[in-house]
Design goal:
With about 350 residues, the chain is of the alpha/beta class. The protein folds into two domains: about 280 residues, Glycosidases (TIM Barrel, Alpha-Beta Barrel), CATH 3.20.20; about 70 residues, no CATH class. Helices cover about 45% and strands about 10% of the residues. The longest helix is centred in the first third of the chain and has 17 residues. The protein is globular and about 60 Å long. The chain starts with a strand and ends with a helix.
Length: about 350
């Protein structure tokens, strides 16, 4: 059985436009991407302001995008981050959450993500409190699939540093108490994992008592450091054999929707080709499909400059030269490169903390 591929729009920074999302679905659906979960960190009405109603224009846009996904044969989902709800899940919180779930049902969702990431987690009975909330939600949503992102969604100790020491046996407790029908997101051994091994994924599946839904943080390039680089290279460290240890594979894309398509296409190739996959050939093929021959050739020449050196190690004269070169192309991918060189995608710590 082929691994289900999808997009989870879970980055910090300026969200994609609705037109860009629709174009992305139309482009990726023929290449095997079968779900799209809307969950940009900048949508405050899904995060710290989740109890408030979305503006009418945004609600209309979400409904239209939901319809576009379904007409393309793609499942549509929304990721809701009910901020620290597990601290007080009383009658008022339940009433607010019930209204939000009804709103999501009205939009029309196939998948509901409940995202407990980037929240304080060093609390007693965290896993059981979150399980109670998830079971309450599962009984009231029209979504046919519910997936939770745990507060501790990776082995990476960076989460303990920022959100408090994880409770002992957190994953095991969550897995044992949680309804088997509810999926669980997992990013791997790190927040942004360089690779995934079948052995690691099998261990996590054993802890969770279910195969995880992989939340793959490549080619995402948000954050103060990563936003200064373009992640364009092919997917590596993701062998097709790992698919048998996953429920699905969701990719968190880059801030640049068109350029994201290059590594996204290579992931589909990796699963399709298995041991025959060659990352260099996959990049060349994907870049031509996304950018066209002339522009793809230019990007191939400068890929190290964009991905390894980035803006911090590129001289002002070189940036100006690159900008002039890419400004000469009438292509949305080239315009994303120009905007990147102009610093339009830069993210600060303050921008992240604001949401």
């Amino acid at each position: 059985m082929a691994t289900e591929l999808g997009i989870i729009e879970g980055y910090y920074g300026k969200p994609w436009s609705w037109a860009a999302r629709a174009d992305q679905v139309s482009f990726l659906a023929p290449h095997g991407y079968r779900f799209f979960m809307y969950a940009p960190k900048a949508d405050a009405f899904l995060r710290k302001r989740w109890r408030e109603d979305h503006p009418a224009a945004e609600t209309s846009a979400l409904k239209a995008f939901s319809a576009h996904c379904r007409s393309s044969g793609v499942r549509f989902g929304v990721g809701l981050s009910p901020y620290e709800l597990y601290r007080d899940f009383g009658d008022e919180a339940k009433a607010d959450l019930g209204r939000k779930l009804a709103w999501l049902d009205d939009i029309g969702i196939d998948d509901l993500g409940i995202l407990f990431d980037d929240m304080r987690g060093d609390l007693p009975d965290l896993a059981r409190s979150q399980t109670d909330i998830l079971h309450w939600i599962a009984g009231r949503t029209a979504a046919s699939r519910v997936i939770v992102c745990p507060t501790y969604y990776t082995d990476d100790p960076v989460l303990d540093r920022f959100f408090g020491q994880r409770p002992a046996d957190y994953l095991e407790t969550l897995g044992a108490a949680l309804d088997p029908a509810i999926g669980v997101f997992w990013t791997g051994e790190e927040v942004c994992s360089a690779e995934y091994s079948p052995g690691h994924l099998a261990r996590v599946a054993d802890q969770l008592r279910r195969k995880p839904v992989l939340w793959d943080n490549y080619p995402v390039n948000d954050g103060p450091r990563m936003s200064q680089y373009l992640h364009l290279r092919s997917m590596t460290g993701r062998p097709a054999a790992m698919g048998e240890h996953l429920t699905a594979h969701a990719v968190n894309p880059a801030l640049q929707p068109v350029l994201s398509r290059i590594p996204l296409l290579t992931l589909a190739d990796s699963y399709r080709l298995g041991d025959a996959y060659q990352y260099g050939a996959a990049f060349n093929d994907a870049a031509r499909k996304v950018l066209g021959e002339p522009l793809a050739g230019q990007v191939q020449l400068h890929i190290s400059r964009f991905q390894q050196f980035g803006l911090p190690l590129t001289e002002a004269e070189t940036i100006a030269s690159l900008r002039a070169r890419y400004a000469a192309f009438d292509h949305p991918g080239a315009r994303e490169i120009v905007a990147f060189l102009d610093g339009e995608y830069r993210i600060t710590r303050e921008m992240m903390e604001a949401v």
